[in-house]
Amino acid sequence: MPCGEFQPRQPGLKKLFPMKSSLSKALISGSTFLFLHWGPCNSQPIQLVPPQDGSPAEPSRELPLQEVTGFWEGTPPSLIETYFPQLPLRLTSPLLRSLRVEILKEKYAPLLQNPLYEKTFLSLLMETGQIEQAKEFLSETNLPEKDSVFLELLWLIGEPKKACEKIENLIRTSPNLEWKKQNVYCLFLNGEGERGKIAAELLSETTSVASPLLNSLFDPSSRPPFEDSIVHSPFLLNVWCTTGQEIPEQDLKKLNPPSLAFIAGSEKMPLKTRLLAAQMAFQLGDFKGETLLVLLKDARSEGLLEKFARALTASKAENLLPLFETAAKDQKLNIVADVFKPLLTKIDPSPETLPLAPYMIRAFLSAREKDLAQKWGTFFMRESPDEAIATLPLLHIAFPENKWGETQLRAWQAYQSRMNPESAARSSYLLRHVLEALGEVPGPTIKGEPAAPSWRQGKALFDETALALLDSAATSKRKGEVLLLTLIMIGETPLGDLSPEKFTRLLGALYKAGYTTEARSLALEFLLAKGI
User: Fold this and answer.
1) Angle between the 146-156 and 131-140 helix axes, to the nearest 10 degrees?
2) In whole angstroms, how far apart are CA 441 and each of 54, 362, 431, 505, 506?
3) Is the pTM of this model over 0.85?
4) In b/e form, how buried is each residue of 515-529, taking b as 16+ CB within 10 angstroms?
5) Are 268 and 244 in contact (CB under 8 A)?
6) Which pLDDT tens digit goes with each residue over 281-292?
């Protein structure tokens, strides 16, 4: 069988994946499914999104982000000076990354003459992978350390030839120690090993600054430790990757997304380190799924993605369900869908693949593949309405055009109470507060839901000054300020680790400021991360 093919109709697959028992007749019956407004289960296929009739898909108040004007209008420079440097670098949420890009796209004119602001802005662009914008901005600045920053940029994106050409010019006019160190590496790259070794020895003798990492280029037996200085220097990272040594996982976690992507693409590095760096970079949005898939095909380890790669390419359908269950538990369904999309799309909805439906829906929603999620959602609703109730809230958030009200909420709550009695009350509490933050009627509670936090408990979740600023900005619809403060207050905490109270307060501010479409996307990410 050619690599990548998958045959969904495997004999015996239905026996291998037994379906759960139906809900009670009082909950799910023909009439109950009618009130869910998905249509009779034995009629024509359900349309999760109604046909286009020329009307806009979203309410007219939901303007695309790029059409928003006056991004920083009304926001004082002092606020940006205070909070801009605190923008988080490592974001696993695609929506939060896109909001960070919107902030970095908007130059705040009154601060552009401030060298400190310029340096911060450049650093954020580089560390978040906005390379082209960093190049453009760098060309416009007059920073004294402009040459150093430009070299960092060249090393970061893996252009050693251009970096060495610039160093050759700089070293003629400047005795800068850093240029001399980088010139040693350039001599090595150019095949001038003896000259490089002599230059390294002279550097150590004349400056009393020994460089074990540079020396390891000429002495393979030398194995210096991976130090924090390498984490913060694209140049030293290039040298390390040239030596082909592994990088401990705890040190990889310290690196920014572009550095991780650079390691993943370094052919001299061990495959184990490249694969780990690639997965981290992918989660942070700085690595392509198809490139990661190539690395996975060469891997022999027993990680989740490696197992998925083998199961899909070998057409071992019977192994997919436990792998999907593990991916859902580890919050990696989005990675699975992004990386293996070409293979997953070969799996057609059928009676044999029906047990995979809830995972396929969540995976494609996580990966922002709404058309594929709709395809599986329609199939799931038609073929197994009892089980499909579990995905109703997610499909409603993704497709707000669908019917949703108290009836649907109660059906979902009853399903959760029966199938997941230990977590049903907490899940209901979480969903209702998300709906309320999105401007919808939250609906009735169920027995056992947590009590709302007290005033004192609520205050402990936030920095009071920042929260007051956020509330004011949301009310006045100061777009840039709302995005900046929201990102700062979420920080690098994964969405799944945020408390419902903190998340929904921030979600409500986004919605109130006019970011209604973005708020729904973020709510969907949050619910998926929480296992809804």
Assistant:
1) 160
2) 28, 24, 11, 16, 18
3) no
4) bbbbbbbbbbbbbbb
5) yes
6) 988 887 777 788
Which of these ranges, 35-44, 94-103, 189-198, has the smallest mean pLDDT?
35-44
The pLDDT value recorded for residue 525 is 94
In this prediction, what percent of the chain has a pLDDT beyond 90? 41
Q: Which of 22-26, 98-102, 305-309 has the lowest mean pLDDT?
A: 22-26
DSSP type of residue 94: H
Question: Between the CA atoms of 382, 384, 385 and 387, what dihedral angle is there, to the nearest 10 degrees?
Answer: -150
d(C-alpha 57, C-alpha 355), whole Å: 31
Q: Which residues of 80-100 are buried (b: 16+ CB within 10 A; e: fewer)?
A: bbebbeebbebbbbbbbbebb
Query: Residue 60 is encoded by which pair of tokens?
Result: 């007219």
- Dihedral over Cα of 372, 378, 380, 381: its sign: positive
Cα–Cα distance, 465 to 476 (Å, whole number): 17
CB atoms within 10 A of CB 432: 23
State the CB neighbour count (10 A cutoff) for residue 137: 18
pLDDT of residue 1: 40
Residue 333, Cβ density class (10 Å: 0-12 exposed, 13-18 middle, ≥19 buried): buried
Residue 398 has pLDDT above 70, yes or no: yes
Q: Encoding tokens for residue 466?
A: 């920042």
Cα pseudo-dihedral 444, 404, 394, 321, rounded to 10: 100
- Residue 153 CB-density burial (10 A; 0-12 exposed, 13-18 middle, 19+ buried): buried
C-alpha separations of 320 from 161, 289, 315, 333, 410 in Å: 45, 19, 9, 12, 32
Q: Please report the pLDDT score of residue 209 as a whole number.
A: 58
Q: What is the helix (H) or strand (E) element at residue 16, kind and residue range?
A: helix 13-16
What amino acid is encoded at 163 in this protein? A
Alpha-carbon distance of 4 to 167, in angstroms, equals: 46
Residues 475-498 as b/e (b if ≥16 CB within 10 A, e otherwise) read eebbbbbbbbbbbbbbeeeebbeb
Amino acid at 517: T
Q: What is the CA radius of gyration of the chain?
A: 27
- 23-66 pLDDT tens trace: 333 333 333 332 334 433 333 333 343 334 433 333 333 333 33
Let me know how many helices (H) and strands (E) the chain has, helices first.
32, 0
261 closest CA partner among 301, 288, 242, 243: 288
* Residue found under tokens 């759960």: 20
For the ranges 8-17, 230-239, 352-361, 391-400, which has the lowest average pLDDT? 8-17
**Pick from 335, 329, 298, 332: nearest CA to 313:** 298
- Compute the Cα dihedral for 284, 290, 291, 295 and give only its sign: positive
State the chain's mean pLDDT as an integer: 81
Handedness of CA 26, 397, 387, 427 (dihedral sign): negative
pLDDT at 173: 83
Residue 515 has pLDDT above 90, yes or no: yes
